[in-house]
Amino acid sequence: MSQLKPMSHIDSAPSTPGKFKMEKASYFNRVRWHTSLAKLAVWSFVFLGAILIFFLRSPASSPVPADLSRRSLRTYNWGGPVWEKRVRASAQIRSRNGFAVLVTGAAGFVGTHVSAALKRRGDGVLGLDNFNDYYDPSLKRARQGLLERSGVYIVEGDINDEALLRKLFEVVPFTHVMHLAAQAGVRYAMENPGSYVHSNIAGFVNLLEVCKSVNPQPAIVWASSSSVYGLNTKVPFSERDRTDQPASLYAATKKAGEEIAHTYNHIYGLSLTGLRFFTVYGPWGRPDMAYFFFTRDLLKGKSIPIFEAANHGTVARDFTYIDDIVRGCLGALDTAEKSTGSGGKKRGPAQLRIFNLGNTSPVPVSDLVSILERLLKVKAKRNIMKLPRNGDVQFTHANISYAQMELGYKPTTDLQSGLKKFVRWYLNYYSGGKKAVE
Ligand SMILES: NC(=O)c1ccc[n+]([C@@H]2O[C@H](COP(=O)([O-])OP(=O)(O)OC[C@H]3O[C@@H](n4cnc5c(N)ncnc54)[C@H](O)[C@@H]3O)[C@@H](O)[C@H]2O)c1
């Protein structure tokens, strides 16, 4: 016991050194005791108040542990009988042998087009998107409006929200997941690397965890990227080529996704198809992509940066029109075999595929600008710059023979015709439908 005494002195010492006076210890102890009681009372009120607010804000149907797990995410409103009815109605299959598809990233560029196409042919479609502000969220809201008018409901939530995903599968036994939610863009990774890990790795794993454990397991088709080819110099890029030299964190997370997909296929029997998209463009596109902001800047009379590789090397992209990509996605869903696991256990080997979805005709970025000049009837102020080493690669070029053979994939839109459609949409969208281009 005597050994404990010096310890009690230390316990009552203030954390600020030098302010402690030994002879006034008992006085301080009394004052501290009263202050502590007052503090305890105040904090108890704050704590009880916080708990009350927390429960009042919680959706009716979500269980408490689920809400706890959502603390790190933004609070979204979901749950309740009306919400469930909406989810069910959106995912209602209307054609013979149709699918019930959960489309993640449905308010995104590709997600909107794929959702609309699935709905048109009679599949049940439910969207999921967190409407983040990586680019103008009002464009995502406008796409949401478009889908709503065709009967597709987008649930607002994050793919990291396990409780929400479980709830969705409880309400609808999805046959397929079209996973397009991701943090896209190569340059933004230097600004916000965590967002890539959050959505492209943690979010993907969370989705796969839920998919592996539900019964029946859905078949999953998901978006990888041509960026996995990284610093490859062998062209055209074929699925068998090496993909271990990513030039950006974005590419690295997509490559990680491919490896993660392999694991879930191997251990749990999930049917997984990865699609390596090559620079997708078209109406309702992404404002962070060159064809989009070149159009905006050309119209504003701003100069256009055109990158050049070492020794005046041309920078080129295998631009792929959105309708061709959509056909590729539908082809992948249609040929996806069922997952073989149940109750989190594999029952037999399951399908694992990876396809290039490109256009097989790379176009120099300077030609892209020339086409836009003609369509917009403006002269570009070209600013030739060295290609920075911040994630972009010099060229992309897809070999699509595997997708052609397995999915019947055959791109039909050249850059000139595709950009014409994009520009028409752009002028209409940003002038409130008053302008159009021929
Ligand atoms: N567009 C291209 O050229 C291209 C090329 C290669 C690969 N891809 C891939 O295709 C997919 C679709 O791309 P896009 O061009 O439509 O991009 P996009 O940014 O328009 O769409 C992605 C959507 O996912 C949502 N999202 C992001 N993180 C989320 C999360 N954690 N939870 C829920 N929703 C989330 C975003 O709000 C967005 O609406 C992405 O996986 C992208 O990496 C696109």
TrEMBL record:
Cellular component annotations (GO), alphabetically ordered: Golgi cisterna membrane
Keywords: Isomerase, Membrane, NAD, Transmembrane, Transmembrane helix
Chemical reaction(s) catalysed: UDP-alpha-D-glucuronate = UDP-alpha-D-galacturonate
Any one GO molecular function term: UDP-glucuronate 4-epimerase activity
All residue ranges annotated as the NAD-dependent epimerase/dehydratase domain in the record: 101-338
Assembly mode: Homodimer.
Name of the protein in question: UDP-glucuronate 4-epimerase
Species the sequence originates in: Glycine soja (Wild soybean)
